[in-house]
Design goal:
CATH topology: Rossmann fold
Radius of gyration: 17 Å
Number of strands: 7
Strand content: 5-15%
Order of helices and strands: EHEHEHEHEHEHHE
CATH architecture: 3-Layer(aba) Sandwich
Number of helices: 7
Strand order of the largest sheet: 3-2-1-4-5-6-7
Distance between the termini: 36 Å
Largest sheet: 7 strands, parallel
Amino acid sequence: MAHVFSLAGRHALVTAATTPLARALAVGLAEAGANVSVTTLHDDRAEEVLANSILNECWAAGAKGQAKTVDLTDPAAVEAAVAALERDVAPIDILVNAAHGANVKPLLEVSLADWQRELSRNVTTVFVASQAVGRRMLPRGRGRIINIVSDVHDRGVPNCALFAASQGAVLALTRSLGIEWGRGEATVEDRVTVNALGVGFYEEVAGPQQDEELHAILQRYIPLRRLGTPADLQGALVYLASNVANFIQGELLVVDGAIANHA
């Protein structure tokens, strides 16, 4: 059955590929056979270096692809990058919106600038990239868009109101686009699907678990008795990107050690 999860011949784009989480996602796709391209989050030299290091790991797994240095909130820049990738590599079959940052602080200390930055990083980037890639996927009648969403979208966690609001917005966008872009005359096997991967409390991933005291509490509280790692998300990502998931639309697949089910 392993072949049914193969992504051979597919071209995946992982946006905001500058974090350990994005690295695991990109490499997981490459190891499943996909060609992988990546972008930065900002038009930034340091991020360009990180994105290229992730691309190098994908190349080592046998993938072809390119890295693009862009501001993911700039529609014109993202449009140009996507056009270039489709011209120089291949049409994009899989889009993974991997921007996932958390500004953890009490709400009364949150400025309007903080609010705007959080929504810009975690939500606007998803909108801009999905629009640029979606306008190409839809005429072709096929494609996979996969967004990353934290469990805090529906769990009350102190000092996470700002981050939680951004994650709720991404999930709402996912569900609405799943309905909007899943319609049409295409067969079930050939259509654009939009889904989300739910991330619990992970090592090396932004969130309240970066606090040492809370980290220790979470290790005891999570039913599987450990925090997740970026690699834990690879299998679920490949599944959603594969043909096996062609009847999954607008859904949230949670990989969190069962903490969302905890009393």
